């Protein structure tokens, strides 16, 4: 089973993010897709992905609520 949209890397889960992934795996979820929110969340998302590389996929980009006039530069920076 795949969870196609989870933000377990956000502040709401700080300190519990790895345990939350373990609970999902124990419940039968084999893959979690992490859609990015903004430039500030790339680091936390990457750290959680690196802890579970076989079970997580990162989707780098901007959440629609985070689109500002400088979005092309922000995406370029995130890509690098």
Question: What this model shows, in words?
Answer:
With 80 residues, the chain is α/β, with parallel strands linked by helices. It is built from 3 helices and 3 strands; from the N terminus they run βαβαβα. It has helices spanning 17-26, 42-51, 71-79; strands at residues 2-3, 31-35, 56-59. Strands 1-2-3 form a 3-stranded parallel β-sheet, covered by helices on one side. β1 (2-3), α1 (17-26) and β2 (31-35) form a beta-alpha-beta unit. The protein is elongated and about 40 Å long. The termini are far apart. The model has no long low-confidence stretch (mean pLDDT 93).
Strand arrangement within the widest β-sheet reads 1-2-3
Order of helices and strands: EHEHEH
Could you tell me the mean pLDDT? 93
Unreliable stretches covering 5 or more consecutive residues: none
Number of helices: 3
Strand residue content: 5-15%
- What proportion of the residues is helical, as a percent range? 25-40%
Shape: elongated
Supply Rg.
Answer: 13 Å
Please identify the structural class as seen in this structure.
alpha/beta
Ends apart, CA distance between termini: 31 Å
- What profile does the largest beta sheet have? 3 strands, parallel
Count of beta strands: 3
């Amino acid at each position: 089973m795949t969870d196609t949209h989870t933000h377990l890397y956000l502040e709401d889960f700080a300190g519990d993010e790895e345990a939350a992934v373990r609970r999902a795996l124990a419940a039968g979820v084999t893959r979690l897709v992490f859609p990015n929110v903004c430039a500030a969340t790339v680091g936390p998302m990457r750290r959680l992905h690196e802890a579970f590389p076989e079970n997580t996929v990162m989707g780098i980009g901007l959440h629609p609520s985070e689109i500002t006039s400088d979005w092309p530069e922000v995406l370029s920076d995130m890509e690098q």
